[in-house]
Specification:
Blueprint lengths: L4 E3 L8 E4 L6 H8 L2 H6 L7 H17 L2 E8 L12 E8 L8 E8 L8 H13 L10 E7 L3 H9 L3 E6 L10 E7 L3 H6 L1
Parallel strand pairs: 5-6
Antiparallel strand pairs: 1-2, 2-3, 3-4, 4-5, 6-8, 7-8
The protein binds coenzyme A.
The site of coenzyme A (COA) has 22 residues, from α2, β5, α4 and α5.
């Protein structure tokens, strides 16, 4: 049940669309991912067409499992003044694959270097968070976790802007997580639980 989410324009930024990745997105994906910061901050490296195709296939299959929801972040096609209108510029995933109860998931994201600093990811994450905690999401999610390395100030700002509270400091786990990190959490209590308080 792939899902598309719309993020309305603001006075300073264009409307965004979050839609599932497609097979034809390989060039846009490679274009966005050839970036030193992403090589440092992300665990997966995408530098050629074959790995891009495999990654796109994995995103498609993950929707079929019903435990991982992955979106291409796009500038809406009608934003004619935007050079990247209609083209994926970023990625956002909600992964509940590690929790058999389906009540908690981890969010992850990145955006192409030329689109950074415009609030695209916070707006995309806010829309995806609302969807994940809403009635359209197939999982009963009540907790979303966000991890980033300790020096990733930009990612920490995304967490803060979207109401993901800093819960704890994470120890280093080399080689995947050599510097230690932050665990941010956003909880959602169902209305029935809130009514009992
Ligand atoms: C982290 C990331 C997703 C932020 O997305 P974004 O859409 O640029 O987010 P924002 O526009 O809200 O900017 C967040 C912070 O980035 C920094 N920033 C601002 N302009 C920037 C630019 N041109 N380039 C890089 N970082 C910039 C600022 O610290 C900003 O915080 P502020 O708004 O309080 O000034 C993006 O930097 C990225 O893709 N980084 C590489 C991959 C990555 O680290 N993913 C997360 C792994 S946990």
């Amino acid at each position: 049940m792939p899902v598309t989410l719309s993020v309305p324009a603001t006075a300073a930024a264009p409307a965004l669309l979050l839609r599932p990745w497609r097979t034809g997105d390989a060039n846009a994906l490679l274009d966005a991912r050839v970036d030193q910061l992403m090589l440092r901050q992300l665990n997966t490296s995408l530098t050629d067409e074959e790995t891009a195709r495999q990654w796109l296939a994995a995103q498609r299959e993950s929707w079929e499992t019903g435990t991982r929801f992955s979106f291409a972040i796009m500038v809406a096609v009608y934003e004619a003044a935007e050079a990247d209108a209609g083209r994926p510029v970023g990625h956002l995933a909600i992964n509940a694959g590690n929790d058999p109860t389906g009540s908690s998931a981890e969010v992850g994201y990145w955006i192409a270097a030329r689109s950074r600093g415009r609030g695209f990811v916070p707006r995309a994450l806010a829309a995806a968070t609302n969807w994940a905690f809403g009635p359209e999401c197939p999982l009963p999610l009540t907790t979303l976790e966000l991890r980033h390395s300790v020096g990733n100030h930009a990612s920490c700002r995304v967490a803060e802007k979207c109401g993901y509270q800093l819960r704890t400091l994470l120890p280093a786990q080399p080689p995947v997580f050599p510097t230690g990190g932050h665990l941010h959490v956003r909880d959602h209590l169902p209305a029935a639980v809130l009514a009992l308080r």
